[in-house]
Each structure stands twice: as C-alpha cells, then as structure tokens.
Design a protein that fits this description.
single chain; 53% helix; globular; 93 residues
C-alpha cells in the first residue's frame, strides 16, 4: 500500500507536466522489460495514474502481457510489476 499525504491536485498537475515534457523531449525512459506493442498504453496509463488514479490501480492495469518474457540475450526476465510501479513513483515524486 502506498501513502501520499500531500498528493493533491496541484502535485498531480506537476507530475503530469513533467511526464508530458519528458515524453515530448524524448527523455522518458521506456522500460527495456516492456514489449514495444504496449509502450503507448503504458504511457497512457501513467498519465491516467497521475491524473486521478493510485499506484495500486496502475499496478493492477500493468498485466504480465506488458512485459517481455526474455531479454535480448534470450534470458528469462523476472519482471515484477510492483517494482515497475515503484520505479515510476521514484522518478515522478
């Protein structure tokens, strides 16, 4: 469970602005463990999460289908969705 006592509308707007600016400037980090076919959906879900959702909501929407099964070298990836959400939150907050 995540707890953000200061996550008000103004903070959410700052998060959205930063996310959109990073995407526009090409500074947004696309996770290597994510399949390319889900990257646009992933970006949309991140923005929704910043707008009105919670980290838990994002975590439930990022199903295993979003993630690659193997890396570039053919090794199995143990993608952990909760780790992806935590990484996003660290980058945004």
């Amino acid at each position: 469970m995540y707890y953000f006592p200061d996550l008000d509308e103004q903070t959410r707007q700052c998060m959205i602005s930063e996310l959109e600016l990073d995407m526009k400037k090409g500074l947004f980090y696309d996770p290597l463990s994510m399949t390319s076919s889900y990257l646009l959906t992933y970006r949309r879900l991140l923005k929704e999460c910043c707008t009105k959702e919670t980290p838990e909501t994002l975590q439930t929407k990022l199903t295993p289908a979003f993630f690659r099964q193997k890396d570039r070298n053919g090794r199995k990836i143990s993608a952990n969705i909760s780790q992806m959400v935590q990484l996003f939150l660290l980058l945004m907050l």
